[in-house]
Design a protein that fits this description.
globular; 5% strand; Cyt_c_Planctomycete-type; 27 helices; heme binding; two-stranded antiparallel sheet; electron transfer activity; mainly alpha; disordered N terminus; two-stranded antiparallel ribbon; 46% helix; 685 residues
Length: 685
């Protein structure tokens, strides 16, 4: 059996066993179902069914046929809503009979325990819960409470390459390859894009990838190619010998896959070449051979299957080469030599060895912080400020709007914070030192220095509230703005412009971002058919117009999670400029933190966005939510309850190092969640 077939067969076997384990898990859920029938169902009937039953489904929400077997995944969202309403006392309504504290606690305990069963690795059948926007569904309190006996990692996976890797690697395989088609799609929107569960290859994608492989194969044997072993396959002087073909196969494998072929692979491709030569000619056979190698699964997929003898808990370690590629692609868009070399030398065998190598790789004192591009990439995707360039705006009266420059200025700030690597999250949320038209660029000697562009930038300072006659000097950079006006990324004009509309602010989306990215909450999608427009009214502030549009009970049920947070940013207009008046009225930028379940946060009232940022920056809970997002980005999947120890260790590493983002990454990439896979072929007794 060839290696590719072996991999696919093993992967298929893994998932067949997981399906059987899911069925077994449903059977093991019988005690929970019995508890539901005996205690939970009577309470739902007593307090809920009158308003949410078969005849009177208020708010279009009925409990008549809700499935108590949460392992099946069909009613997970409904149960989450029930738990939220009970937790915050929203239901039953104040004018209805209320459950006792003991009854409410019993309902909540049963729902939470049942939901947690679905958050174990490999259990959920609802594929959408594997996507990045559903990461916050996993129970935060459980993840950061008591230590578990061990980490239960994710199952083995075959992970399609992200376009950045493909587009960087493929042109390098041959000289002067251009105009390669993009056959790999990427998810758009404010979520992490490189997720194992998000992508697949279909016929539409395969066609351009085949065309690319043919084009690259042609260039690999072209006269200007530097690979003499490959050019020898198409020499006009004589057909290649068997030894030359085998040598070419090894060169092509090393060049394309970063490894030598196995003896089985070498023989299989040699046979393929000979059969192709019999049908056509040896030059056509050479092109077919290289095209076939360029379409190997390893070229398009990351394989994280693990190998070796499972431990007593059924966990297997990634092979050394799998580990090397996994680390490389977590930090960059290409295989990194130091990790490939370490894999060949057997120096990726322990977590300590991995941690030491990752820590060394992360050392970077350069201004641009581009040694590990995916580190800066995390903050681009997390805050999504580059989207400012996609939001069209007319220039404001008396000023200008240059979103590309706003983004570049914000990134200068972020690069500085990453280079200092101290209290990274707090600095990102609270710094009031901004660069204005000052960016790191190579000078004529190729040395990277802080530079300014003065041409056509006369009105640009107005985006930051600076006067038109502001003096451009590097000595004044970064500029310290008043602490009550600016505080971190979320009050920077780039982020504010990204999270705005073409003509107005967007407090709902801004509040949703804070709720999901800093407070770890969830917000349902907008129901189909809802008119989400804010009325146009003269002499009325946007905050008041938004309140008019969302005051109905069915609207406020979701908007109360977002609007009290998002309206604090009304202190700025949709260009990101500080404002004291809106529609001729004094700006009301007050807000409140609610519905987090965290005692030290809930009920906190703030006077504006800078106070909100300082409150959140001081919260250990917000730090933990940040760690969860870093986990998702660098591991390419949502966390499960089995990753609790990994998350606790990563958070502790961040705190113990004085808020070092590098140490947070080291902890994640050397964790059992990253290095191990749960083999379903071995189960615990």
């Amino acid at each position: 059996m060839n290696r590719a077939s072996s991999i696919l067969n093993r992967f298929a076997a893994f998932w067949l066993v997981f399906c059987s384990l899911a069925v077994a898990g449903a059977a093991e859920n019988a005690p929970e179902l019995a508890l539901f029938q005996r205690h939970v169902a009577p309470l739902l009937k007593k307090y809920c069914v009158d308003c949410h039953g078969p005849t009177t489904a208020e708010a279009d929400f009925s409990l008549e046929s809700i499935d108590p077997n949460l392992a099946l995944g069909s009613d997970l969202e409904a149960w989450r809503l029930v738990a939220e309403q009970l937790q915050f006392g929203d239901m039953p309504p104040a004018d209805s009979e209320q459950p006792t504290h003991k009854e409410r606690d019993l309902l909540l305990t049963w729902i939470r325990q049942s939901l947690r069963q679905t958050q174990l690795p490999g259990v959920t059948r609802d594929e959408k819960l594997l996507l990045p926007q559903y990461g916050n569904y996993v129970d935060h309190q459980f993840l950061f409470s008591e230590r578990l006996p061990r980490v239960t990692p994710a199952p083995p996976r075959i992970w399609r390459l992200r376009p950045d890797i493909y587009e960087r690697q493929m042109p390098r395989l041959a000289e002067k390859v251009t105009d390669l088609a993009n056959g790999l799609n990427v998810t758009e929107g404010p979520t992490f894009k490189d997720y194992a569960a998000s992508y697949f290859l279909d016929e539409a994608a395969t066609t351009p990838l085949l065309s690319n492989a043919k084009k690259i194969a042609e260039r690999m044997i072209a006269p200007q190619s530097k690979d003499h072993a490959l050019k020898a396959l198409v020499s006009d002087q004589a057909p290649p010998t068997d030894q030359m073909v085998r040598e070419a196969i090894e060169v092509a494998f090393r060049k394309t896959l970063g490894r030598a072929p196995s003896s089985e692979e070498s023989q299989r491709f040699f046979t393929f070449y000979r059969k192709s030569a019999e049908v056509g000619d040896y030059q056509l056979a050479a092109r077919s051979l290289l095209t076939a190698i360029l379409l190997q699964p390893e070229v398009l997929f990351r394989q994280e299957l693990g190998d070796g003898q499972p431990d007593e808990f059924g966990r297997v370690r990634l092979r050394s080469q799998e580990t090397a590629f996994a680390i490389s692609y977590s930090l960059a868009d290409e295989p990194l030599k130091e990790f490939l070399t370490a894999a060949e030398e057997g120096k990726l065998a322990t977590s300590a060895e991995v941690a030491a190598l990752v820590r060394e790789r992360l050392r970077d004192d350069s201004p641009l912080q581009e040694k590990n591009p995916r580190v800066l990439g995390f903050f681009r995707e997390y805050f999504d400020y580059p989207f400012a360039t996609e939001v069209f705006k007319e220039p404001p009266p008396g000023g200008t709007h240059l979103p590309q420059q706003l983004v570049a200025d914000l990134e200068t700030n972020i690069r500085d914070i990453l280079r200092d690597d101290r209290e990274v999250l707090k600095e990102l949320l609270t710094t009031n030192d901004y660069y204005v038209n000052a960016n790191y660029k190579p000078d004529k000697t190729r040395q990277v220095t802080l530079q300014m562009t003065t041409a056509k930038m006369q009105k640009y300072p107005t985006a930051f509230g600076l006067p038109l006659d502001w003096k451009w000097t590097l000595e004044r950079q970064p500029i310290s703005f008043p602490a009550e006006e600016r505080s971190g990324v979320l009050t920077h004009p780039a982020w504010l412009a990204a999270w705005s509309g073409n003509f107005d602010n967007h407090p709902v989306q801004r509040g949703k971002w804070v709720r999901t990215h800093l407070l770890g909450g969830t917000v349902p999608d907008v129901p189909i058919g809802v008119d989400a427009r804010v009325p146009e009214l003269d002499h009325t502030s946007f905050r008041n117009r938004l309140a008019m549009a969302t005051s109905a009970t069915e609207c406020w049920r979701c908007h109360r999670k977002m609007d009290p947070l998002g309206v604090t940013f009304e202190r700025y207009d949709h260009y990101g400029r500080f404002q004291r008046l809106d529609a001729g009225q004094p700006v009301d930028a007050s807000g409140e933190i609610t519905r987090t379940g965290i005692a030290e946060l809930d009920g906190t009232k703030v006077s504006g966005p800078t106070e909100l940022m300082n409150v959140l920056a001081d919260s250990e809970y917000v730090e933990q939510v940040f760690v969860r997002h870093a986990f998702r980005y660098f591991l390419g999947r949502n966390e499960t309850l089995g990753d609790a120890n990994t998350l606790q260790d990563a958070h502790q590493a961040y705190r113990n190092s004085g808020g070092s983002f590098r140490e947070l990454i080291v902890s994640l990439l050397s964790s059992d969640s990253f290095l191990l896979r749960q083999s379903p072929l071995v189960t615990e007794e």
